[in-house]
Amino acid sequence: MKKHTVSHPGVIESEAIAAIKQWSWPLEHTSDLEPLMKRIGNARIVMLGEASHGTHEYYAWRARITQQLIREKGFKIIAVEGDWPDCYRINRYIKQYEKSGTNAIDLLRSFNRWPTWMWANWEMVALIEWLYEFNRPQPAHKKAGFYGLDVYSLWESMEAILDYLRKTDPLALTAAEEALHCFEPYRQEEGRSYARAAQMVPELCQTEVVELLKTIRQKMPSYNSDPENVFNAEQNALVTVHAEQYYRAMVEGGPHSWNIRDRHMAETLNRLLEFHGPDSKLIVWAHNTHIGDARATDMSADGMLNLGELARLDHGEEGVVLVGFGSYKGQVIAGRNWGAPMQKMDMPEARKDSWEDLLHRSGPSDKLILTEDLRQDTFIENHFDHRAIGVVYRPAYEPYSNYVPTLLPLRYDAFLFINQTNALYPLHISPDGHQIPETYPFGV
User: Fold this and answer.
1) Per-residue model confidence (pLDDT) at position 364
2) For residue 351, what are the CA distances in angstroms to 333, 384, 396, 401, 402?
3) Residues 299, 401 share a domain
């Protein structure tokens, strides 16, 4: 998508600020979400974004919205930017399956893949325990579920398959063991060693994982266990196929590996909806870069697509509501490099003339915007920068990076702006005085 230049920035800014003042709703209490609930209406898919993976308010407001969607609109599927095996353990716990754990804290402490804080945090403890209590009186078909959309868990998914087949189909173990044996030499470095080896042998383990998926799909009718366990086994097999493709594509650079990842997310989303039936409704938790329509950014010009775009194409814009998040300044949990220790970092004031700056200058308060109100020439002909912070963050580079040129009214259907944010509360760091933070149990 071409980025239009702004010929008279002062005029454009004043028009933008005036429109934001006119069309924004105050955002302080859960009751202030009512305009958003009306906008969601009968949509089947609601995607809740975040501008970082380490901000308390994003998790807290997403939890409030999620609880309201479950209670009032019959949503029963939560699908997040997390690994399938880890998230499926949460699913088993909140549905009170046998031997599924005794509390959310112990469950989340087992999340050991970096960045651990992304899901192992006190905000998630509160939501998971709320889901557990909500599900307690519900019949099986009305219990809310929790699932992972991501593609990183190649080895964890393969080990889950092996464990499942040992119990249900020892004769099918051969295909799984052959696939695992092929990958075993490359287990270190989260797939990077496999990616380097694949430069020399492009189809290194591709045959093995495809055969594994084929075997499991052929055998599915003979598996007489809990149907969700069967779905879980097939999904783990699908993860191994797509993870192998993802790690192989890493060496190429460019958009290819990104697109493999988001296509996997979209396929998993569609599989979850199909599995849960024609009346099922699904909530996504993922970064803005995944849920905000890529066509309204410069991502599209770079050959990148994303989950929000694919969902709109698959389910129609009337069936999907995309909700973005952002903030002007505050603190955030992140690492300075991939795999580095997590830190609480100061997030500086937003870049001048960015969306976050314009929202702040329209009044330094938290706001909800329904973006259809902003679909006027000022906003759909001019890209404004929109901040995006990942798990790796270096605040000193803020003026030169971390922004995506965005047509906000086309990228999202709604936007929650938090003027000043606080850092997430990671579970692996003891809170002050070894006490649970005062935010727990948020929303229970």
Assistant:
1) 92
2) 20, 10, 12, 10, 10
3) yes
